[in-house]
Amino acid sequence: MTDQRELDRLLGAFFADGTDELADRVIDAALDQIDHTRQRRALRMPRRFSTMTMPIRLAAAAVIAALAVGGAFFLFKPSQPAVGGPSPAPTPQVPATSGPAGGGSGSAHYEITGPDAASGDVKFASSATGGPSSDAFSQSAIFQDGSLVIRIKFPNPGCASLLADNPQPNPNCGAVSISTATLSLQDSGWRAQPLPGRPSCTWDTASLTANGGTGTVECINAVNPAHPNTPDTITITFTYQDPSPG
Amino acid sequence: MDHDVVELAQHGDREAFAILARTHGDRLMAIAQRILRDVGQAEDAVQQTLVIAWRELPNLRDPDRFDAWLQRLLVNASYAEARRSRDWNANVRLLPVDGPAGLDESMSIDDRDRIDRGFRRLPPDQRAILVFTHYLALTPTEIAERLGIPVGTVRSRLHYAHRAMRAAIEADERPVAVAGGRRR
User: Fold this and answer.
1) Residue B182 lies in a domain
2) Considering the domain boundaries, does residue B69 fall inside one?
3) 8 Å CB contact between A37 and B54
4) Are B42 and A19 within 8 A, CB to CB?
5) Distances (CA, A) of A76 to A58, A137, A207
6) Whole domain around residue B15: which residue ranges?
7) Is the separation of the CB atoms in B12 and A39 below 8 Å?
8) Do B166 and A16 touch (CB under 8 A)?
9) Min CA distance, B3 vs chain A (Å)?
10) Nearest CA of chain A to the CA of B86: how many Å?
11) How many contacts, defined by CB atoms under 8 Å, are there between A and B?
């Protein structure tokens, strides 16, 4: 039996041998690549936030989320007459036509690809031939500490967003389903990771076909344990199906 | 010195980043080559690390922790490189491809071959822990902090890695088939 001391000695000798110099061409190649790579903007939480205890942090996050949702609702709610007294209580808005901005019936495909290995950009592409135009949707992604967060905003009148875990589907909103490409995504090592406050957000296709709701911004958080900080390319295809006319 | 240079690079100074790359490049290469056991793969991992470091540098909160942060990026880049090569298990070689400049007298060629074979069979995360422990001489707590993983995970990986290496060393010497590992 090899004792620990002997093992330590052998491993020490084993690791003592090896390359200790980086060729200049590698640094030159990296610097060349850097010339075409933009730095990310600093995304830092205030120090005070990082020193908060977890319950306070969660409470602060909840307040921020509530403000964001409220702000989004305010931004996306249909315009009200500018005159008159206090606004009446909000009533659910049903779109006059079937489609959201740039609407029309039919389905459309939206692809989110990224982050790009060189630039870190996440691309949003559309192959839509019907339904809303691609710029009717927006997305953002943050690749940070192993997490790729993709937020998708659906400015659909009457249902400003799709909430993947919304328990009450709204028939007036378009349905968004995630394609089978997600399955290969899972196979390649990506896993869904619940977002704070959204524990049921998963890759599960069924939950992603849920419709409607108010608010904004949900809800895929993918993490690949094998690539915690390394850019990898993922492609997610969403299919948007407009609600049936009438 | 690093602190000021890191701050300059954080604000987009490419010359400052070039200084950092040249200062830390050899160390990164030494670690990557020991984890990956392949100079070509190690160079790719280091290059990728430098590009990511440049991109993510504005998000580094404490410039004094640049070295540790860089090593964490390197380990992750090495994992990715290992995953890309997909030859962790098949790539069994009798002789180290990127062999040592001179054999250490404290270990026999047989020992070395056995350790090399055993090490190549380890998953990348266990390799990294062994390199950080036996090459960089870091404690599990220091490794945990550097790699951003729980110290229990470090200890567990170290335990399994040591067990595997012990088994490799104690294995009976027998002819080993040389699989056609990918070679860049």
Assistant:
1) no
2) yes
3) yes
4) yes
5) 26, 13, 24
6) 2-170
7) yes
8) no
9) 17
10) 13
11) 146
Q: How far is A195 from chain B (nearest CA, A)?
A: 20
Which chain B residues are within 8 Å of A188, Cβ to Cβ? none
Q: CA-CA distance, B56 to A44, in Å (whole number)?
A: 12
Q: Note whether residue B53 is domain-resident.
A: yes
Which residue in A7, A15, A33 has the most chain B C-beta atoms within 10 A of its own C-beta, making it the best mutation to test that interface? A15
Q: How many domains does chain B have?
A: 1
Cα angle A88, A90, A92 (rounded to 5 degrees) comes to 140
Banded pLDDT at B131 (limits 50, 70, 90): very high
Q: In this structure, what CATH number is given to the domain that contains residue B82?
A: 1.10.1740.10
Give A-chain residues touching B72 at CB under 8 angstroms: 229
A34/B72 CB distance under 8 A = no
- pLDDT at position A129: 37
Tell whether the model's pLDDT for residue A107 goes beyond 50: no
In contact, A144 and A115? CB cutoff 8 Å: no
Q: Could you read off the pLDDT of A73-91 as tens digits, one per residue? A: 444 444 333 333 333 222 2
Domain positions in chain A are 104-241
Q: Which residues pair with A109 in a beta bridge?
A: A239
Residue appearing with tokens 């909000």: A90
User: What's the mean pLDDT when you consider all of chain A?
Assistant: 48
Residues 135-194 of A with CB under 8 A from B: 144-145, 189
Classify residue B72: in a domain, yes or no.
Answer: yes
Which residues of chain B lie closer than 8 angstroms to A19, CB-CB?
29-30, 33, 39, 42, 98
pTM, rounded to two decimals: 0.51
Query: Please, are residues A158 and A172 in contact by the beta-carbon 8 Å criterion?
Result: yes
Query: Is A206's pLDDT higher than 50?
Result: no
